[in-house]
């Protein structure tokens, strides 16, 4: 039997699930730690991958300016990884941001290969504006950051409607 995983905007009912999903990766310094309050305050930035009402993954899209946004806090539940959920979440962010008029998207990441497969290219961290680092200063690895900056220009003509959020079919786990 197959199930659908859909990408949708997060709601207040997702906050605990988002918190629990991010926590183990934050504890390993793979992503930045977020408190429940922080997730509530930034909830408009979150998309979730919904698997029959449970969360399969989350991502956050933070806008810095007219032509720059960051994909951050990207996590897929380990039992759902390697099924296209990460790609679905990144694509959802791209559609969403393109719909808002933002065309350049970047990420700071340890999974460079994953982003390259989604059409991102490596750029120098110095090419990013200073305001990008205001969040990074809270990271334990800030002084010795070995994340890689990747960037993508969203193609013109990208279908930007939220109701066109991508969906995938997965076999029952
Ligand atoms: C990175 C992560 C989000 C990928 O999610 P996922 O659902 O497993 O990825 P997908 O199944 O959508 O993978 C899409 C493609 O990228 C590839 N890919 C996945 N993870 C990869 C990795 N770490 N390195 C290189 N390629 C990777 C897949 O093989 C697949 O390739 P294909 O198109 O040839 O089939 C997930 O592994 C994760 O949550 N990791 C821990 C947290 C993390 O590192 N987050 C990133 C913070 S920026």
Can you describe what's shown?
It is a single chain. With 173 residues, the protein is α+β, with helices and mostly antiparallel strands. The chain has one domain (2-171): Gcn5-related N-acetyltransferase (GNAT) (Aminopeptidase, 3-Layer(aba) Sandwich), CATH 3.40.630.30. Helix content is 26%, strand content 32%. It is built from 5 helices and 8 strands. The chain has helices spanning 15-27, 36-41, 85-100, 112-117, 133-136, and strands at 2-9, 46-51, 54-65, 68-76, 104-109, 121-123, 148-153, 167-171. The protein has an 8-stranded mixed sheet. Strand 4, helix 3 (85-100) and strand 5 (104-109) form a beta-alpha-beta unit. It is globular, with a radius of gyration of 15 Å. Bound molecules: coenzyme A. Coenzyme A binds next to strand 4, helix 3, strand 5 and helix 4. Residues 25, 30-31, 74-76, 81-87, 107, 109-111, 113-114, 117 line the site of coenzyme A (COA).
């Amino acid at each position: 039997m197959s199930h659908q995983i859909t990408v949708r905007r997060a709601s207040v009912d997702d906050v605990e699930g988002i918190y629990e999903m991010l926590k183990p990766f934050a504890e390993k310094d793979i992503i930045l730690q977020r408190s429940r309050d922080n997730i509530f305050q930034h909830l408009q930035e979150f998309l979730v991958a919904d698997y029959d009402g449970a969360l399969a993954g989350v991502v956050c899209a933070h806008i810095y300016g007219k032509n720059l946004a960051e994909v951050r806090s990207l996590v897929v539940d380990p039992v759902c990884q390697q099924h296209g959920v990460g790609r679905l979440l990144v694509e959802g962010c791209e559609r969403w941001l393109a719909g808002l008029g933002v065309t350049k998207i970047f990420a700071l990441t340890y999974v460079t290969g994953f982003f390259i497969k989604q059409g991102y290219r490596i750029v120098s961290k110095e090419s990013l504006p200073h305001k990008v680092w205001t969040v990074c200063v809270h990271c334990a690895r800030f002084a010795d950051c070995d994340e890689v900056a990747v960037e993508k220009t969203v193609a013109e003509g990208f279908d930007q409607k939220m109701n066109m959020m991508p969906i995938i079919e997965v076999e029952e786990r």
